[in-house]
Specification:
The structure holds 2 protein chains of 2 kinds. By secondary structure, chain A is an alpha/beta fold. Helix content of chain A is about 30%, strand content about 25%. Chain B has helices at about 55-60, 85-90, 110-120, 130-140, 160-170, 190-205, 215-220, 240-245, 250-260, 300, 340-355; strands at about 5-20, 25-40, 45-50, 70-75, 80, 95-100, 175-180, 210-215, 225-230, 235-240, 310, 315. In chain B, α3 packs across α4 and α5 packs parallel to α6. The chains are: A alpha/beta, B alpha/beta. At the A-B interface, α7, α8, α9, α10 and α11 of A face α6, α7, α9 and α11 of B.
């Protein structure tokens, strides 16, 4: 198959609040993930990256949110699927790893029971065969002595080990797509390096594609092929990984990259993005970043900017693009 | 030479985790285990290490928020551990603390103004009639509008709260601030604002920082000197430049090589440590790092390496560092494209011009933007 494995088109998630105020958490998001690639979804707290991934997984409750658009996975629109069919997919062909390894495992079951549950549900193996498979999975994610560890409760494991158990559960049914939401944020750097290596290795051997959600551009540079930057519910830039660090196309991306202290030199000041994100219940009419953008002009506040092409696979939602012409 | 601002010698803190029926300790965590360092006025010393390395405990010990099991701490040459209650309070005016989580460290029932006025009143910093004016000055100093004095913590963003926490520390005009992971809970773009502020304040007020962080990139940006901690001990300490240019201890090298670089396809040798961080209750014998160290030999398993300094003050606690191959310091090689550098520079300048605390206006319209 040559088409994308996951294709999100015009996805909107609106949470209805009190007094007729609604939060447009995800607004007209278009994304696609080709088989064999890793997409980084980058942005700061509240930009909608987690809600986007939850909507893909069918985990945003329809009772509290209006979801529209299309989420096509291997040709099927997940938003049209009945719950039952979605449950068959989730944990099988589609898997997710959450940020908090401390809270996303059930403390009252052993880790073995939690892995076996997924395998029995989707693969219909006997418990005995499922247990053997679970031990195998734990070994693959580098848990030492998996035959003994499988009967441990989550509290006996360190944060890094729990995250590896989460990954083992997610991968136990050989999913085609793994969505990893900040999988290393709660971990120490040395453990983070182990998990990133593991993800890289797994992508090479079994997984077809990964969507990695993170606020850390360093992590993105380490393992992603493509990046989408989100701001206030919208995708503001999409680019191949080299392009975004060579010539970022959106001022917000420039601010994010400039905010990271550099190891190769000592700057007196770091670039920082002034101000704060707009109120998501009362968004401005024009560009949502204009109020914080040092390159903003009158044209920016009058109408919402479209995504425009900058190069092959490189798009930016900035009417003043290419912004490097503004500074040369 | 005058006495350093802060000096610690053989500082030790053991926490008893379990006691026998008769009250004898049966399990002890040596959170800080014989640590010595000095900090001069106006200098920034960073404490780096993974969770559980004892860096926060050390920060609390030097402020005497917890009592050490053994060791000596002096502040401007005076023995801190012999201070009585009144003297200790006077000392607290010289040394303050900024915590990691600005959501938990500000009282939700007090306005920003009250939070800042409390230490001013407590220490009699200014006459009562001048308090409001001083609060306004402090808010201004950390880049917040003085009108915000009447607001409660929940009305501020994380970055603004951290500014209030910093202003509170500054209210008593200290010489030393212990910053315990001051930017770890903040978003990337806000993090750089707070780091810029801390650097400015240091320059303007001549502050010394004991800067506790697990983020080596942040440490490189802030520190004059760095001490790397592992299991309650300092395993390497040096000037920041020297440490980042040529790390010696395998643990420091591993930490440095594990930093994800914002640089795609960066070619570098990664030292990925195998295995888990051992339990603090039973750290490995000999060198505490030997179970994860790629260079460990028999001697490391039995003999504890002492922290030994060279002529330049670069100290390393490793039996083998002189025999090890030079560290791969790819992280420190210049990188970045000229286009990116120009954009970031322009962004930084223009954004600074907009001001950080005041009302931002959208260029060309004069209209106040959403804040």
């Amino acid at each position: 198959m040559s088409g994308p494995l996951l294709e999100i088109a015009d996805l909107k998630v609106v949470f209805r609040g009190d007094l007729g105020r609604s939060t447009h958490a995800v607004d007209k998001v278009d994304l696609s993930v080709m088989p064999g690639t890793t997409l980084g979804l980058v942005g700061e707290s509240g930009c909608g990256k987690t809600v986007t991934s939850l909507a893909v997984m069918g985990l945003v409750p329809r009772t509290s949110a209006e979801i529209s658009g299309h989420v096509r996975f291997a040709g099927v629109d997940l938003l049209d699927l009945p719950d039952r069919a979605l449950r068959d997919l989730r944990g099988d062909r589609l898997a997710m790893v959450f940020q908090e390894p401390m809270t996303s495992l059930n403390p009252s079951y052993t880790i073995g029971e939690q892995i076996v549950e997924a395998i029995v549900r989707h693969r219909g193996l006997s418990r005995r065969a499922a247990r053997a498979h679970a031990i195998d999975m734990l070994r693959r994610v580098n848990i030492p002595a998996p035959e003994r560890r499988i009967d441990d409760y989550p509290h006996r494991l360190s944060g890094g080990m729990r995250q590896r158990v989460m990954i083992a559960i997610a991968l136990s049914c050989d999913p085609e797509l793994l969505i990893a939401d900040e999988p290393t944020t709660a971990l120490d750097v040395t453990i983070q390096a182990q998990i990133l290596d593991l993800l890289r290795e797994l992508k090479a051997s079994t997984l077809s594609a990964i969507v990695l959600i993170t606020h850390d551009l360093g992590v993105v540079a380490e393992i992603c092929d493509e990046v989408a930057v989100m701001y206030a519910g919208e995708i503001v830039e999409r680019a191949p990984i080299e392009a975004i660090f060579e010539r970022p196309g959106h001022p917000y991306t420039v601010g994010l990259i400039g905010s990271i202290p550099r190891l190769d030199r000592r700057d007196d000041r770091l670039a920082s993005v002034p101000g704060r994100v707009p109120d998501m219940t009362a968004l401005p009419r024009g560009c949502r970043f204009a109020s914080r953008c040092p390159f903003a002009a009158e044209i920016c506040v009058s109408a919402p900017p479209p995504l425009t092409a900058l190069g092959s696979g490189h798009w930016t939602r900035c009417v003043r693009a290419p912004i490097e012409d503004l500074v040369s | 030479m005058t006495a350093p601002l802060l000096a610690a010698e053989g500082l030790t803190k053991h926490f008893v985790m379990r006691r026998s029926l008769l009250g004898r300790p049966t399990a002890v965590v040596k959170a800080v285990d014989g640590v010595g360092f000095t900090l001069r006025a106006g200098e920034t010393l960073a404490l780096v290490g993974e969770s559980g390395s004892g860096k926060s405990t050390l920060g609390r010990l030097v402020l005497r928020l917890i009592e050490p099991t053994a060791g000596r701490i002096t502040f401007e040459g005076r023995d801190l551990l012999s201070l009585g209650a009144a003297e200790l309070r006077a000392f607290r005016r010289q040394a303050q603390l900024v915590f990691q989580d600005p959501y938990a460290s500000l009282n939700p029932r007090m306005t920003a103004g009250d939070i800042l006025a409390e230490p001013i009143a407590l220490h009699g910093m200014v006459p009562p009639a001048r308090r409001d004016a001083r609060v306004a000055e402090l808010l201004d100093l950390v880049g917040l509008d003085a009108r915000y004095a009447g607001r409660y913590p929940h009305e501020f963003s994380g970055g603004q709260r951290q500014r209030i926490a910093i202003a509170r520390a500054l209210a008593v005009e200290p010489k030393l601030i212990v910053c315990d992971e001051p930017v770890s809970s903040l978003d990337v773009s806000i993090r750089s604002q707070v780091l810029n502020l801390l650097r400015e304040l240091r320059r303007e007020l001549g502050l010394a920082y004991l800067f506790i962080s697990h983020d080596l990139a942040v440490v490189k940006h802030m520190a004059d000197r760095v001490a790397v901690m592992n299991f309650g001990r300092i395993v390497e300490t040096a000037n920041a430049e020297a440490l980042f240019a040529a790390p010696r201890h395998p643990y420091t090298r591993a930490l440095l090589s594990a930093i994800p670089l914002p640089r795609p396809r960066a070619r570098r040798e990664r030292i990925v440590l195998a295995g888990e961080i051992p339990s603090a209750l039973e750290p490995p014998p000999g060198c505490h790092f030997h179970t994860r160290c790629p260079f460990a030999v028999e001697r490391c398993r039995v003999e504890r390496p002492e922290l030994a300094a060279d002529g330049a003050g670069h100290a390393t606690a490793c039996h083998r560092w002189t025999e090890l191959p030079a560290a791969d310091v790819a992280a420190a090689q210049p990188h970045g494209s000229p286009a990116l550098d120009r954009l970031v520079a322009a962004f930084g300048q223009a954004a600074d011009g907009q001001g950080e605390g005041g009302v931002v206006t959208v260029e060309g319209t004069g209209a106040p933007a959403l804040r």
